[in-house]
Amino acid sequence: MVPKDLVHYQNKLYYVYKKMKPESIKEGYVNDVKDFWRCDVVVRNKFNNDDSLLFLREISDLEPIRDVI
After folding, report:
1. Dihedral sign, CA of 64, 35, 53, 24?
2. Maximum Cα–Cα distance across the chain
3. Cβ distance 44 to 20 under 8 Å?
4. Is 22 helix (H, G, I), strand (E, B) or coil?
5. Residue 54: enclosing H or E segment and its boundaries?
6. Separation of first and last alpha carbons in the chain
7. pTM to 2 decimals?
8. ∠ CA 42-48-53 to the nearest 5 degrees?
9. Given phi > 0 = left and psi -120 to 50 = alpha, else beta, which region is 49?
């Protein structure tokens, strides 16, 4: 899977898991939705008058896994 939208935020790389309008979530429930979708960060996008919430998941470094058979 190749994520379509990548975001560089606070020296880390994220992909956009969901993009929603702020009025579609009740006030005070953004963190609950973030936890439900297992996202790391929620930011507000105000680029080109597109006021939306971006639910982001971090793309961490790859770690080699040793195969034990």
Report:
1. positive
2. 54
3. no
4. helix
5. strand 52-58
6. 27
7. 0.77
8. 15
9. left
